Amino acid sequence: MELKVLTWNLNRASYRRRKLWSYMGELEFDAGFFQEVYMIPNEVRWNYHTFRGEMNTLLLHKDLMLDSMKRNYLEISDNHCIEDFYVSCRIEIGGNSLSLFSIYNYIGPADSDFSEFLDLLYNYIEEGEDLIIIGGDFNINKNFSPSLRRLALLAEEMTGRLSELGFRDVLREEEDPFTFMTPNGGKYQIDYLFVPEGVKILDVWHPPAGEIIETRPRLSDHIPLMVTLEI
């Protein structure tokens, strides 16, 4: 079966962002990882099962034929902010067990807590037998300025470690990909979708940046990223 997975930082989304919600509704995704979500309109929640976190939401379309669905958690940590970095659920679909992680690194340059979170995620991957899809706004990129060198190192460590664990970044084949634009015109990939190497990718989609950023009112300062998988 095909599964469309979307990740997008919605840039402080509330009920009043009618144009944003209308655009999102046209994307016809099955599973959505959304960051900077303040409020979700009823018409969205009517069509999707909703798992909420700290400005972080995971949506599953109610038309999916699921055998089971439940929220799941990483190993308990004494660091109380760890759980704020992610929302996760585990589903049984098409004879497969699938874990979905929507991630939001809301701390940004203060990276030590997020690094600890990533270690817990790596342990979850190593110990589990599920197919796992990981996406969201990680707020890290290897090309950030020298003053943010630790973020650059963390980005390299993350992509390298997930590659060792059998995952691929769906944008890795693109030349100079970006998902975020700074006010001064800087372009970075800080949003990611990681899928297991053994899962067939049927399509990778993201709209032209101008369609999102230059729209008035602007839809977001992040570009949505969607992958269609054969599960």
UniProtKB/TrEMBL annotation:
Q: Please name the GO terms that the record assigns under molecular function.
A: catalytic activity
Q: Endonuclease/exonuclease/phosphatase domain: from which residue to which, for each copy?
A: 6-222
Instruction: Name the chain's protein.
Output: Endonuclease/exonuclease/phosphatase domain-containing protein
Q: Which residues does UniProt assign to the signal peptide?
A: none
Pfam families recorded for this chain? Exo_endo_phos (PF03372)
Highest taxon of the lineage: Archaea
